[in-house]
Fold:
Amino acid sequence: MFRHDLANQRGVLRDGFRASSANADYIVALAGNPNTGKSTVFNHLTGLNQHTGNWAGKTVAQATGTYAHNGKRVLLVDLPGTYSLLSRSPEEEIARDFICFADPDATVVVTDATCLQRHLNLVLQVIEMTPRVVVCLNLIDEAKRKGIEVDCARLSERLGIPVVPTAARNGYGLERLKDCVEAVATGQLSPSPLEVRYPPTIERQIEAIEREIAPVLSGKLKPRWVALRLLDGDPSIVKSIERHLGVRMLDARKKVPA
Ligand SMILES: Nc1nc2c(ncn2[C@@H]2O[C@H](COP(=O)(O)OP(=O)(O)OP(=O)(O)O)[C@@H](O)[C@H]2O)c(=O)[nH]1
Ligand SMILES: [Mg+2]
Structure:
């Protein structure tokens, strides 16, 4: 069942990203490295029901569109193509902030089956933020042509999230992708993603920071993920948290161990 209360709470945040949930039952973000077939997936799913513009306050293009599935209306947001979510560029910051603060009901990460290893970096970064993730293993036709076989069941088991093989150019696998997205967005399926563990010295720092910031975040963001970004020395996450969640990070920031 769709979580109406949560939807209302998130409404304001989503409007800030020009992704109003007013006419949709749920919101789905489409992330992925450049040139993985995101727009092909997006066009196939949304057809002519698209709207293009710019992200609020940025010169980066934004495309949103809707599709209907099992009687529900889904708003799909095509995020800028990024290799990571470390906010080193406006594109990376938009993708990160949308997944974090617009709190989509599901995030699809489109990957290239012909060079999967390179794409898993982004998948791991997204599952550090949210468990509601589906991997779209695109270009499976190209992979087959090159003699590359991917064990999707094993990959899904290792990552702890659904993995759907697709060939978006001819529509292969996209019905199954919609089913998986719906299952994750509605909570019918609750993935438990792999948690990347770091060496003990880093884990101790993560725990110390988590303890300090958890009360400030009050359940709105995963403290572990924010702690990792603070350890990265990324000041933009503090600004984004203050802007989007309306909380003060200043005190927590002072206590971050050197
Ligand atoms: N063979 C094959 N080609 C595909 C598939 N999906 C997309 N393509 C092709 O891959 C190219 C890139 O696709 P796009 O959809 O533009 O990729 P994108 O991720 O939106 O790219 P950027 O927006 O530039 O990051 C296009 O030429 C597509 O036709 C697929 O499943 N199989
Ligand atoms: Mg594109």
